[in-house]
Automatic annotation (TrEMBL), chain A:
GO BP: any one term: aerobic electron transport chain
Keyword Transmembrane helix annotated: yes
Gene: cydB
Name this polypeptide is given: Cytochrome bd ubiquinol oxidase subunit II
Species for this entry: Paeniglutamicibacter gangotriensis Lz1y
Predominant subcellular localization, coarse grouping: membrane
Phylogenetic classification of the source organism: Bacteria, Bacillati, Actinomycetota, Actinomycetes, Micrococcales
UniProtKB/TrEMBL annotation, chain B:
Organism: Paeniglutamicibacter gangotriensis Lz1y
UniProt key word Disulfide bond: no
Keyword list, A-Z: Cell membrane, Electron transport, Heme, Iron, Membrane, Metal-binding, Transmembrane, Transmembrane helix, Transport
Gene Ontology molecular function, alphabetical: electron transfer activity; heme binding; metal ion binding; oxidoreductase activity, acting on diphenols and related substances as donors, oxygen as acceptor
Annotated localization: Cell membrane
Protein name per Swiss-Prot or TrEMBL: Cytochrome bd ubiquinol oxidase subunit I
An example Gene Ontology CC term for this record: cytochrome complex
Chain ranges passing through the membrane: 20-41, 53-71, 91-115, 127-150, 185-204, 240-261, 375-397, 409-430, 469-491
Protein origin, superkingdom: Bacteria
One Pfam family hit: Cyt_bd_oxida_I
Length: 340, 526
């Protein structure tokens, strides 16, 4: 077994889990801006629950991408070039979302503010769908030739797994955001979020679970059955807790579901990092897609220091901003008065 | 246009655009941290206002840098998959380190800074802006290590058709990176200095124009106050602008000195590492010692084999040799000397390999586009130098405490803010275009490593169609254009709002509105 490439396969799975767990709720909150918030005050409450943290959450995506580049250049090159159009859309979505977060409150008119709300909603939706589709395709395969290049045209990647993964991440993000709002807000928002969470939780987790089951099934992976089982247990647990309105436990249950689900998917896919649907001989695996042991050792040392540090100060951030935010906290909007 | 050309345009446009935001972020971030430190130490109101006002502009700009930086990371894999496969073992590491060690710090600590006013203890809150702003500098280091490796590959061997890292220390202490890093950082501070200078100048001018500040018979300022219609412009407001102006001017001048010195060091390396780039920067066909002030002729007509139509009109004898060799006599090689050397070393034609697409087997043009390198080099130096001169003049003109009541100079000050941005862009376009036809330029000075190079023609994604590439080029370019307008409109609005735009409480007089807001939970909200 290739120890270092396997270690980095696990690390990249962890980075994606971190991304989906953290950005999951802020992508969800972004979508809920349009689907859930009743008025301007509520939209601002939603926005401010993720205000201090969303940018840090998004760095998990950047790190996952860069770590894939460093540790598995062939995986990075084939996956990103094969999904050219969808990733372009993801980039556009993330650009608009980021800018809208920052600029929305600086809008002078309702129409402009409303436009930025749409940017946040659509940006969050497209980013969640695109990342889900990308991960689903990476674990189920793309039509790649011997050089690792996509054949069959710009949309050759489109299949049922892309849709399943896309919906899976969108639905997970929405439900995760409802659980998050239960922890971060109070009053009407908290109550409505709790009700929706209890009602929709199993439905929302189903597509992601189906994706995990599909990957385990295709690869006939026995080793992945344990995390898969854990994911199912976590889902039931989260649902029970949500119905009992124990918001903290429901949120933790969702986290365990995600962790176990991603673990099942990546365990089942191992040692493939990106299978070819044309010929199994063209599969990209942890051995043939990775960087050299020298580079991986260097990166391992960096990650051994860097990753725990990130976890520590990011956790601290959540602790600093742990207070619940309610509509009464939202200050009046201050228009900028030109003095010159 | 074929895939390669579209991909190059896309990379060029998105990178130059990204690098409009980056230097301002780097330079302004540290400057704001210094301002907040001054407030922390002295408790003076003007430093708090400076921190808030410049911090607000910093954030408006920062978010654009974040949003456009994402594109940079993704497009290596999307548009340049062959490049990514070839260099990933070396090039991916600094990018991953940038994300893990620098960008996380930037994003998370900036979040703490924005929302942590009054929430965090003052000392810790001050630490957050320092963490965030120093992380932007670290970030630049990692990215420049990656870029410098493309200019001058080191610590690498060619194994199984790809570049493999064998010496991380060599990669991270690449001589090219060691001079490019200070050059870029000083360049960033030059941008921030000009930004402070131009905006402060305009505010001081407007105070004089409105009759708030006046001057006595000797020209010394008499600071006044005005509070009409909730527009508060007190004496502290004056201090904010005059101090910001002076900080900006000093930063701009020091930065230019740093830029010039590090640029000189870069030229000395360039002559060794990429002699063709230096020759192309001078549009020098023949060996010589002079720095060209103006050359005319058809810079491209010679194509790959000859370069005879360029005529130097004015040149300063010996200056080029001084830049490159620190004496006035050692000749710097011209294009006509270098072309045969490159052809002998790296061949005259691209290999007949499918990885080169339509270009397989075609003749290699080792000469960069000389209009771009020649004028890019000069534009960079001219704009950089002009802004330093402007900063010195500004300090002189404001020695008695305020700016002259002159509409044209104040317009010039605002316009002059753009010069350092232009110098940065021109410098990058020069150094990246000057590396062509290579995406990874060969390193001529190391044994065994001179096989580590890659032609740009081989780097593009083979599986991506021209249509896809065109789609993203059009999508990104139009979105970038739109967002540039948005950013400029917002920056303008906040600049015109003055201190009050960053401190709403500043305009409010007692009993003016609802003061019962729970500042504990949200002192700064979206």
């Amino acid at each position: 077994m290739d120890f270092l490439p396997t270690l980095w396969f696990i690390l990249i799975a962890i980075l994606w889990t971190g991304y989906l767990f953290l950005e999951g709720f802020d992508l969800g909150v972004g979508m809920l801006m349009k689907l859930f918030a009743k008025n301007e005050k509520q939209r601002r409450v939603l926005l401010n629950t993720v205000g201090p943290v969303w940018d840090g959450n998004e760095v998990w995506l950047i790190t996952a991408g860069a770590a894939t580049f460093a540790a598995f250049p062939y995986w990075y090159a084939s996956l990103f070039s094969a999904l050219y159009i969808p990733l372009t859309l993801v980039l556009v979505a993330l650009i608009f979302r980021a800018v809208a977060f920052e600029y929305r409150g600086k809008a002078h008119t309702l129409a402009v503010r409303n436009a930025w709300d749409w940017a946040i909603f659509l940006g969050s939706f497209i980013a969640a769908f695109g990342v889900g589709a990308m991960l689903a395709l990476s674990t189920t395969g793309l039509p790649l030739n011997a050089n690792g290049d996509r054949v069959g045209g710009p949309f050759a990647w489109f299949n049922q797994y892309a849709v399943l993964g896309g919906i899976g991440v969108v639905a997970f993000s929405l439900i995760h955001a409802l659980a998050f709002l239960g922890l971060k807000t109070d009053g009407d928002i908290r109550d409505r979020a709790a009700k929706l969470l209890a009602r929709w939780l199993p439905v929302a987790l189903l597509p992601l679970a189906c994706w995990a089951i599909a990957v385990v099934w295709i690869n006939a992976s026995l080793a992945a059955l344990a995390p898969l089982l854990l994911a199912v247990v976590a889902m039931v647990f989260a649902w029970i807790q949500a119905r009992a309105r124990r918001e903290g436990w429901a949120f933790i249950g969702l986290g365990v579901f995600l962790l176990a689900g991603v673990a099942a998917i990546f365990t089942a896919a191992y040692p493939n990092v990106l299978p070819s649907t044309i010929d199994a001989a063209y599969n990209l695996t942890v051995s043939n897609a990775s960087s050299t042991p020298y580079t991986l050792r260097l990166m391992s040392i960096v990650a051994a220091f860097g990753l725990p540090a990130v976890l520590a100060y990011q956790t601290w951030t959540y602790w600093v901003f742990r207070k619940r935010i309610t509509e009464s906290h939202i200050p009046a909007a201050h228009p900028v008065i030109p003095i010159i | 246009m074929d895939v390669l050309e579209i991909a190059r345009w896309q990379f060029g446009i998105t990178t130059v655009y990204h690098f409009l935001m980056v230097p301002l972020t780097i330079g302004l971030g540290v400057t704001v941290a210094v301002m907040q430190t001054a407030w922390h130490r002295t408790g003076k109101a003007e430093y708090l206002r400076m921190t808030k006002f410049w911090g607000k502009l910093f954030l408006i700009n920062f978010i654009m840098g974040v949003a456009t930086g994402l594109v940079q990371e993704f497009q290596f894999g999307m548009a340049w998959s062959e490049y990514s496969r070839f260099v990933g073992d070396v090039f991916g590491a600094p990018l991953a380190m940038e994300a893990l060690l620098a960008f996380f710090v930037e994003s998370i600590f900036l979040g703490l800074w924005i929302f942590g006013w009054d929430r965090l203890p003052k000392r810790i809150h001050l630490a957050t802006i320092w963490c965030a702003s120093l992380a932007t500098v670290f970030s630049a280091y990692f990215i420049l290590v990656a870029n410098s490796w493309m200019q001058h590959p080191v610590g690498t061997e060619m194994i199984d058709g790809r570049a493999v890292m064998t010496d991380a220390w060599a990669v991270f202490t690449n001589s090219t990176a060691m001079v490019t890093f200070p050059h870029t950082i000083f360049g960033a501070f030059a941008v921030a200095g000009g930004f402070l200078l131009g905006i402060s100048w305009y505010h001081l001018y407007k105070r004089r124009h409105a009759g708030i500040d006046t001057v006595d018979a000797t020209g010394r300022v008499i600071v006044g106050e005005s509070a009409t219609l909730g527009k508060n412009r007190d004496k502290v407001d004056y201090k904010v602008w005059i101090k910001s102006l002076r900080i900006g001017a000093v930063v701009a001048m020091i930065s230019f000195a740093g830029v010039a010195l590090s640029g000189h060091a870069q030229a000395q390396l360039m002559i060794e590492q990429q002699p063709m780039k230096m020759a192309a920067a001078e549009a020098a066909c023949h060996d010589g010692t002079g720095f060209s002030l103006l050359s005319i002729g058809d810079l491209r007509s010679g194509g790959a084999t000859t370069c005879d139509d360029v005529v130097g009109v004015f040149e300063i004898p010996g200056l080029l040799s001084f830049l490159a060799h620190e004496n006035f006599t050692t000749e710097v090689k011209g294009v006509n000397t270098l072309l045969p050397e490159y052809q002998e070393k790296y061949g005259t034609h691209l290999p007949d390999d499918p990885m080169y697409g339509d270009r397989a087997g075609s003749e290699i043009n080792y000469l960069p586009v000389m209009e771009v390198t020649y004028w890019g080099f000069r534009l960079m130096i001219t704009l950089g130098g002009l802004s330093a001169v402007a900063a010195a003049v500004a300090l002189w003109l404001t020695r008695k405490g305020t700016v002259p009541l002159n509409k044209w100079i104040s317009r010039l000050a605002l316009f002059g803010m753009l010069a350092p941005f232009g110098a940065n862009s021109a410098g990058w376009i020069f150094t990246e275009m000057g590396r062509q036809p290579f995406v990874v330029a060969p390193n001529p000075s190391f044994e065994g490593i001179d096989q580590v190079f890659m032609y740009t023609a081989a780097a593009v994604s083979p599986g991506v169609s021209a249509g896809e590439m065109l789609f993203s080029l059009i999508a990104l370019t139009s979105i970038y254009a739109f967002l540039l307008v948005v950013e400029v409109v917002l920056l303008t609005r906040y600049i015109r709002g003055g201190i009050g735009s960053a401190m709403p409480e500043f305009h409010e007089r007692p009993g003016d509105g609802d003061n019962d807001q729970d500042t504990d939970a949200l002192s700064f909200a979206y």
